[in-house]
């Protein structure tokens, strides 16, 4: 009895077996934040998570924290943010730092700590508003950056009275 050996190039798959197409590289949604593409693949290749480093700048963390704090009902603006002088400077220069005004952060490789100064609307429960701010900031930062938020310290600097006018900068308005 003789057996013929075929090279892989000569091999033909039977008609009833289908070979799935190669998967395109895409972000896996079933993994935890911070997981990388290709992690968990078999073979001698290292997971992509160990093939480089991602560094998140403090300014990015400040902006995310500032936006998350402003999303909470009852927070009119981060303190020191949109007073008349700040709004005027934004309109004249296109200053985009308003989002992170009143926010200070410390960012490490895996953890961050946040200090927020806020203004709360008169009549609302400050403990309830600050709890909501703290939760929203932690959720936003951990979801978007993968950093563990160690603490969010909140200083309520002022209470906005109903008759006080809030001047918010208009988006993308620049004076030439």
TrEMBL record:
Superkingdom of the source species: Bacteria
Disordered: annotated segments: 1-51
Pfam families per UniProt: Asp23 (PF03780)
InterPro entries to which the protein is assigned, alphabetical: Asp23
Residue intervals passing through the bilayer: none
Family from the record: Belongs to the asp23 family.
Stated name of the protein: Asp23/Gls24 family envelope stress response protein
Native organism: Streptomyces alkaliphilus
């Amino acid at each position: 009895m003789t057996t013929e050996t075929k090279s892989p190039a000569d091999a033909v798959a039977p008609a009833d077996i289908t070979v799935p197409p190669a998967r395109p590289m895409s972000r896996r949604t079933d993994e935890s934040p911070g997981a990388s593409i290709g992690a968990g693949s078999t073979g001698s290749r290292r997971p992509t998570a160990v093939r480089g480093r991602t560094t998140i700048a403090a300014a990015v963390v400040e902006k995310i924290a500032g936006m998350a704090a402003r999303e909470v009902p009852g927070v009119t603006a981060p303190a020191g943010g949109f007073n008349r002088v700040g709004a005027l400077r934004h309109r004249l220069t296109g200053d985009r730092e308003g989002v992170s005004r009143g926010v200070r952060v410390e960012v490490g490789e895996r953890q961050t700590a946040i200090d927020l100064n806020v203004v709360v609307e008169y009549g609302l429960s400050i403990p309830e508003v600050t709890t909501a701010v703290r939760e929203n900031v932690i959720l936003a930062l951990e979801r978007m950056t993968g950093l563990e938020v160690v603490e969010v310290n909140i200083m309520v600097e002022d209470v906005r009275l109903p008759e006080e006018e809030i001047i918010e900068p208009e988006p993308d308005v620049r004076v030439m």
